């Protein structure tokens, strides 16, 4: 039987999914499982990598069963993942030496401050495209090696391996301790603070600065190309042919292949990417420069990215920490039960502020409270915070590129929230466009894998699949938009300098 689908493994921050796509880019089968979130200390965020490994195995079988598919139906496997999350494991046993340190984790701020004392937070930006922050992987790796007795020595001997979740999933699918492939792609490597953007290789100077042994690092490969074959389970023998970090995958799934093409993903956090082609554009307005993708031996393509730490996870916080909603999906109806935010503004700086501010000293705040305010106003302010933060990063992208954005393509779980999407269009002043397939992160990973094995013939074949499903036009007048933006900026200013 000719292969009729590609399978994407989407290992995200709050859950993992396995999704099968056909040639048209339509979903054929999907399985999903959440994994636990651990917060052992303020600012610490951890995952259990063993739990994630087990979930992925179950999900592959589940997606195949739902689609009525077998290995012979699957042309290739693609992997996409939460970026910057650091996992260190024993090469011989395949067991992690500690919980995974998640990208949101801020425990390494003291190390960041020490490194920034010589050259500031932009010390490595020209080479890596990244500011010095707790966001990237390098300080997380160093923290684990310094805190766990004997870990650094073992890493230097090559007994320990590091990887972001894509690398962890790949290593286990291709055999684990029994010959597993230790590799990652350029997009994930570009988020570690250890890879040079121009050479696309680990840099000795960066490794020395952060104290990370080269022996524990994976091989860097193109995003679309050979990554071995699945060694175990119902997909044994199927090639793994694509890896992209989650936001790069979403951009790929939105067919944003050309310079100036843009997408914004609404997930645990929000991430706006603007394609800059083969040109490395260094931001002057608080954005990150990153690799967008690389296909085979072609030159790498680059992007500017606006990374927002807390958006979808803010809704989870309303559910889990405050208990004002029972399900995340309840937030829209609660927010819609009031006409406006009642003067309430919510700045969710739980891990400091990411782009375009990069202020680790900020902390979350709800401002403008009066006796009139209710939980509905807080819910509405939480949704509006997502849109306000997106406006900030789009403004920064416009300033860096000189582009006049005429619409914003959106994807991710929150784009089904009609209230949020309308407010997003209102506060941007441009249309917001949702595609038919909003699972663009998984779709992008599938496209990268399918390209490598000829399932899709090229980028034009992929571009032909993209279809608009809904468009929100702005309704708010310019004066009201300006007033609300001014209030938002005032609220953000109140959150700064909280942590000494």
Commentary on this structure:
By secondary structure, this protein is an alpha/beta fold. Helix content is about 35%, strand content about 20%. It has 16 helices and 22 strands. It has a seven-stranded mixed β-sheet. The protein has a five-stranded mixed β-sheet with strand order 3-2-1-5-13, sandwiched between helices. Strand 1 (about 5-10) and strand 2 (about 15-20) form a beta hairpin.
Sequence-ordered SSE layout with sheet pairings:
Elements: E1 5-11, E2 15-21, E3 27-34, E4 46-47, H1 49-67, E5 74-81, E6 87-90, E7 100-101, H2 109-116, H3 125-128, H4 138-147, H5 151-156, E8 160-163, H6 165-173, E9 183-185, H7 186-189, E10 195-196, E11 201-202, H8 204-210, E12 219-221, E13 240-245, H9 246-253, E14 262-266, E15 270-277, E16 288-293, E17 301-308, H10 312-322, H11 331-336, E18 345-347, E19 365-367, H12 375-401, E20 408-411, H13 418-428, E21 432-435, H14 440-452, H15 459-463, E22 468-472, H16 478-495
Parallel strand pairs: 1-5, 5-13, 9-12, 14-20, 20-21
Antiparallel strand pairs: 1-2, 2-3, 4-7, 6-8, 10-11, 14-15, 15-17, 16-17, 18-19, 21-22
């Amino acid at each position: 039987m000719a292969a009729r689908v590609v399978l994407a493994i989407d290992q995200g921050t709050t859950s993992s999914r396995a999704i099968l796509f056909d040639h048209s880019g339509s979903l054929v089968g999907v399985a999903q499982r959440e994994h636990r979130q651990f917060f052992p200390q303020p600012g610490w965020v951890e995952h259990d990598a063993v739990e994630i490994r087990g979930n992925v195995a179950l999900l592959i079988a589940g997606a195949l069963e739902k689609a009525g598919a077998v290995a012979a139906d699957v042309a290739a496997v693609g992997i996409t993942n939460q970026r910057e999350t650091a996992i260190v494991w024993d090469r011989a046993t395949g067991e992690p030496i500690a919980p995974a340190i998640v990208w949101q984790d801020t425990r390494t701020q003291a190390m960041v401050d020490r490194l920034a004392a010589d050259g500031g937070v932009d010390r490595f930006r020209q080479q890596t495209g990244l500011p010095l922050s707790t966001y990237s992987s390098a300080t997380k790796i160093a923290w684990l090696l310094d805190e766990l007795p004997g870990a650094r020595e073992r890493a230097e001997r090559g007994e320990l391996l590091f990887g972001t979740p894509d690398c962890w999933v790949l290593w286990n699918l291709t055999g684990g301790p029994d010959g597993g492939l230790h590799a990652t792609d350029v997009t994930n490597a570009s988020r570690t603070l250890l890879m040079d953007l121009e050479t696309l290789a680990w840099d000795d100077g960066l490794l020395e600065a952060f104290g990370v042994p080269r022996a524990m690092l994976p091989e860097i490969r193109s995003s679309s190309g050979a990554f071995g074959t699945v060694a175990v389970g119902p997909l044994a023998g199927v090639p793994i042919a694509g890896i992209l970090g989650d936001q790069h995958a979403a951009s790929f799934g939105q067919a944003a292949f050309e310079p100036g093409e843009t997408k914004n993903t609404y997930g645990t956090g929000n991430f706006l990417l603007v394609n800059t082609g083969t040109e490395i554009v260094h931001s002057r307005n608080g954005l990150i420069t990153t690799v967008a993708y690389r296909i085979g031996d072609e030159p790498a393509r680059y992007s500017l990215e606006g990374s927002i730490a807390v958006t979808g996870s803010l809704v989870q916080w309303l559910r889990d920490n405050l208990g004002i909603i029972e399900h995340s999906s309840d937030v829209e109806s609660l927010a819609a039960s009031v006409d406006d935010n009642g003067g309430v503004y919510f700045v969710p700086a739980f891990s400091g502020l990411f782009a375009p501010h990069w202020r680790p000293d900020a902390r979350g705040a709800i401002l403008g409270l009066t006796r009139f305010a209710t939980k509905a106003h807080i819910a509405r302010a939480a949704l509006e915070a997502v849109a306000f933060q997106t406006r900030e990063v789009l403004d920064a992208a416009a300033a860096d590129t000189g582009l006049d954005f005429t619409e914003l393509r959106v994807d991710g779980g929150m784009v089904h929230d009609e209230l949020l999407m309308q407010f997003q269009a209102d506060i941007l002043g441009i249309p917001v466009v949702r595609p038919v397939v909003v699972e663009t992160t998984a779709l992008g990973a599938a496209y990268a894998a399918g390209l490598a094995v000829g399932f899709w013939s090229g980028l034009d074949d992929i571009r032909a699949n993209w279809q608009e499903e809904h468009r929100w036009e702005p309704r708010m007048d310019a004066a009201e938009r300006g007033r609300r933006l001014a209030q938002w900026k005032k609220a953000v200013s109140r959150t700064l300098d909280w942590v000494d």
